[in-house]
Structures are given as structure tokens and as C-alpha cells.
Amino acid sequence: IQKMAANSPRTALALLFFALSWVLGTPEISCKKEDGGAVDWFIFYKLPKRPGSKDAASGLEYLYLDSTMRSWRKSQYLVNSSKSVLGRTLEQLYKVYTSKSNETAYLMYNDGVPKSTNYSRKYGHTKGLLVWNRIQGFWLIHSVPRFPPFPEDGYEYPSSGRRYGQSGICITFKYSQYEVIDSQLLISQPNIYSCSIPNTFHQELIHMPQLCAKSSSLKIRGRHLTVLQSAQGQNFFHFVKSNSYTDDIFTAWMAQQLKTDLLAETWQRKGHALPSNCSLPYHVYNIKAIKLYHRPYFSSYHDHSKWCVSTQGSKYRWTCIGDLNRDPRQAFRSGGFICTHNQEIYYAFHRLLVHYEPCD
């Protein structure tokens, strides 16, 4: 007994040293800014291609906002550069893919798969990427079809993504949040086209490995709202619905839940747009034109982004970025939005507005 007692401090120290070695040897996975430094979150907004322009940069320029900034900044890089915020962040994916490590995982989904001309309506109208280890990771939610490429192909921005405006948000999360993300992702019914989730994660993360394996026996609820906390403690409200919830997510759910009138910017194709709606206590108005940077304003027809903000008269100032358009057919698609009442984000988006459609 005395010998065991004498050895216990050594054993405890050895275990502590092993744990610290594992933690120190595990890379910090996070959203990245253009200099490669870690950030809690970032938002990108790619400008649409200028009509008739022969400028090679047209359709590849983007605005950028992160947790260390107060307003939009026009990037010195193009979105197809490996030095862009997307290129810097996705570099971690390629390291995970080539290392084949059992300590890291990734999952990529898009209803428009890279190298394919088909769009599947069987799955959610969702586009995104997650990379994580047992310490933390990031979740990138975006609007770009056929992006990112398969990890074996390295970084590239699709030519099909140049014509329209595009947007997305990346948030860094501690691993403790991934169990919640796991359940939310199930409801969104993503079309997963590349993934690797080692067994070490399967005890806590139930659904993502099943989604990765294309399991058809999953039971999916209609909708769910949860609060996710970023690595630095900022709260994000995540709304997600499956295809069994067949209503406009903006009007029927988000505006009423957040108790605010919303101005919604989504792809407004002729014959594919729901009108502004003032039938419920909190109203939703379609944004019809926005202005990015020093460019002339452009209509929502040229913007494939999906976001909304509270009206200026609202008590609560929300900004939401996500997956779905205000389109009658998309009421039958799964997808979601991640919302924040961060004031810098709110004012950054509000300054983009030119005019919106009133209710009839």
C-alpha cells in the first residue's frame, strides 16, 4: 500500500504530462483572417460580377468583417486566392485530409456538389463545412454552389460562383458545442459529399457519422431553435427546419420568435419570390436593392446571398445569415439561419440597404 501511495504522485504527473502533450500537440482549429491569425468569427460578402465587365477581378472581389473589426473592409485579395479568408480557413481542411489523423474530423455539404451540374432537392438547401478536433473547430455556412472543392483538389473558387453576390459566416466553436451542432445538422438534412469522422468522436456525436454514411433510418423533427456559444463566448441563435415544416421560415417563425420586423435579402428571381408579408404581428419585407462598397447599387436578382436584419424601428437588432430564399418552393426545403444581436454586424449589414418592398 505504501509503495502504491508513493507512486501515485508520479502516476498523476505522468498522466498530466501526457494530457498536456496531447493538447499542446493538437493544432488550434478556428476561423482565420487574411494574415492567418485566428478569429472568433468572420463574415464575407462577395460582390457580383459587373455586367459587361471584362475585368478579370470582376465577380471575385469581396468585403470582409471579423470579430476584431467594427465595419466592412474590402479585401486586398480576390476570393479565389489561397490568401483570402476562405483560402486561409480552408487550409486547415487540407491539412486534416492529408494527415489522416484520428484526432481531427471534417464534414462538407452542398446541394450543388462540386464537379456536378445536378442539384438535389432530396436534401436541404444548405451549404457548409465543419472541421474540428476534441478542443475546438469551425463551422462555415455559405451560399456558394459547388464550393468548396473536394479536399483532394485543394482550394479553388468555382467559376459558377462569380456572377451573383454570395455571402457566408464562419464561427469558431469549442468542442462542447458540437453535440448541439450535431443535432441541428440532422434537421437540416444536408447533402454531404465528403467527410471523415474518426471513431473517437462517435460517442458524443451521434448523427453526423450517420449522415456521413448516408443512413436512411434517421428520425428528423420538424424544426428546432438552439443557442450556440462561440469560442469567445458570443451567443448565436440557430434556427433550423426540415422539409416537414412547410412554411416561410422568415415570416412564420424567425420574425415572430425574435419579436422583430425583418428586412430579408434573398435571391429574387421572377416567379420565385414570396411578396413582403405583414399578415402576422411581426412583418417581413423583401430587400430589393443593396449597395456594396463603392459599387453602384444592384437588385436582389443579382444577389444569391441569404440574410436578414431587423428594421431600424425594432426594439431588438438582429442579423441572420443562412441557407434559404423567400421562395414558395423553398418552404418545402430544409435549411436554417444563424442569428446574432452583435451591433457591429447589425450596422454593417444595415448600411448596405438601398430600398425594400412594402406590403400591399
UniProtKB/TrEMBL annotation:
One of its GO terms (cellular component) is lysosome. It is found in: Lysosome. It is an enzyme of class 3 (hydrolase). Its main location: other. The keyword Ubl conjugation does not apply. Its EC number is 3.1.22.1. Keywords: Endonuclease, Glycoprotein, Hydrolase, Lysosome, Nuclease, Signal. Belongs to the DNase II family. PANTHER family: DEOXYRIBONUCLEASE II, DEOXYRIBONUCLEASE-2-BETA. This is Deoxyribonuclease-2-beta.
